[in-house]
Here is the input.
Amino acid sequence: MSSTQEIIMAGFGGQGVMFAGKLIAYTGMLSGKEVSWLPSYGPEMRGGTANCHAIVSDEPIGSPIIINPTILIAMNRPSLDKFEDTVVSGGIIVVDSSLIDRQTTRKDIKSIEIPATQMAADMGAGKLANMILLGKLIKETGFLSMDIIKEALKKVVPSKKQHLLDINMKALELGYNY
Amino acid sequence: MSDKVLMKGNEAIAEAAIQAGCRYFFGYPITPQNEIPEYMSKRMPKVGGVYLQAESEVAAINMVYGAAGAGARVMTSSSSPGISLKQEGISYIVGSDLPCVIVNIVRGGPGLGGIQPAQSDYFQAVKGGAHGDYHLVVLAPSSVQEAVDLMTDAFDIADMYRVPVMLLGDGMLGQMMEPVEFKEQKGRDLPSKEAWATTGTKGKRRKNVVNSLYIDPKELEDLNIKRFERYKQIEANELRYEMINCDDADIVLVAYGTTARVANSAMRSARSEGLKVGLIRPITLWPFPVEAFQKAVQTTKAFLAVEMSMGQMVEDVRMAINGAKPVHFYGRTGGMVPTPSAIIEELKKILGGER
Amino acid sequence: MKKVFQRPEVLSDVVMHYCPGCTHGIIHRLVAEAIDELNIQDRLVGVASVGCSVFSYNYFECDMQQAAHGRAPAVATGIKRVHPNNIVFTYQGDGDLAAIGTAEMVHAAARGENITIIFVNNAIYGMTGGQMAPTTLLGQVTQTSPYGRNAETQGYPIKVCEMLATIEGTAYVERVSVDNVKNIMATKKAIKKAFQTQIDGKGFSLVEVLSTCPTNWGLSPVESLGWLRENMMPYYPLGIYKEK
Here is the structure.
């Protein structure tokens, strides 16, 4: 893997896009890397699509805005449509195939499809498709370690919601082992 | 590593202010700085401080005036249109020689503009957006960590010289998360506020009056001259800037705040292609680091100022260079952010023309 | 010899700049007497406003801050929040309080800010030379209502006490007048009560004092007092509008 991963995570508001992006950044930080996280903000967050930019690098990070991601995690169709063409050649597109009814048309990237929303529903945790997608991404790329992301999860999950830690970890593993 | 936390710029700025001893915050919501008042409303009551959501930015800055006059470490924050509303109060704060910190998380303008990052309030911040003879000390961090580190300085400079200090960020800095460490800050020896703060005489001293009205023009002139003598001290003592790769540079990029990060990326890529590019990053926008340019102008062939504006700081660059070398400009505006590749393209155009 | 009349301690020993016959002097004195009697001078912070009373920081012997036009209640809020045990008051005219400073006044009241406002209403802008005020009466001629204030184009005079009485945060609101000795005594009582309200921590207090401007009304001081009684009092009835 290259020394810098620029990840755009995109989906509907409420799918945990921001949270998953923060988790990536936190995991990168705990791994001793340079990291940044930048949300889309303002009216576009209200009801429509939300996205965030997470960068994990060995070098100091310039702009936290990602123009050409190395990894796109698309949690809905509009996100795939919007960002598909921006992914760098040789990059990765991770798609929640439960919600996206088409495959990527790019031939120069690695496509990963996983029915994350369906899997989350099956395990009784409908909102954890984001964790399943992350688990799968880690399995396929290895750019973050499962041990460290679990450490990060403890820090990113707010203290009031610590009881949700286990189910989040399970979802990560479910994706990892898919 | 373990001391680091991942924090949004806005929240980190608020926490840093509290750690710098700020106990009073008066503000009004506006995107993209809302996490500052939100954080303050959560934290201030826990540290025995005061958070107050005012009815307007106008009221908020005048509450700051009252609290600063009463001797408190106090701040407000806003974004561009809100900062315009605060200008009246800023002028009175200057005129009454009161210390405070004002954070501007700049968004695109003019008018209601947009909510995406911009640097188009440079003139307002640096050249004086309000009436009267004055300067604001303007600090422009380019990372969340630097914003945190500059916060104690901001309050200390304000108290030291009895001036308002502005921390100038942008939507990107406010919204982004980065690892940040809250280091033990060693404050400075600061002058007592006893001699002027309105704390009540307690029957022990003559009354203190906080005021900016002087009907006698000679008296007002004397006061303005005295204030500008303090500005001279600030210029001598508080200048901050960074110079990277300028010694052998054919061309030097000039950028501040988050734009400097983009410029830095562009510089590194350009260097890997064999282009000799340097970077000057002003950290204090006022006082402007003229000395950095006086150094660089000896060796480099040209300058390229990059801003998220139609060209504002570039005027100060031109004054600092004073015609000795060409000064070029590349900017994006309205919330658009320059990309490293666009900057590299500009660099190549300029270098190509000269070769 | 026993002293039967003296300058209140908190009133500065200086010549005031007010016009002959202006009632600001009386009101300053009443404020000062109330402060002396309550013995709060040492923990008092005043806020001067913009208008004729702009120099009031020279007339009160206590810590003072000069506020921008209309912003005195916001400045007072800042001071009071830093020093909750201090007694903080503003001294504002009708243009300052009821035009440019309406928002600051109303929201300080809505917050129940524990401050005291002395509001001097003389139905005209004095300092700038007699222009129409938010409290100028219908038909009243001023420099900017030369044909008399016309409701159709210039709207209606604002009744501050009536408006503030509807706000939950206000603890004490009274309208008084300084047109005769009896009313002057009542004014002092109201001002004292307003400060007492603050001392007791009850919240926002405001005393509106109907006042004269002989210079800009174009009347003698005595005629002015009559004009106040005949024209202002019917529209601005005296009385307590709120008392918690």
Summary: Chain B touches chain A through 24 residues (CB under 8 Å). DSSP finds twelve helices and 15 strands in chain B.
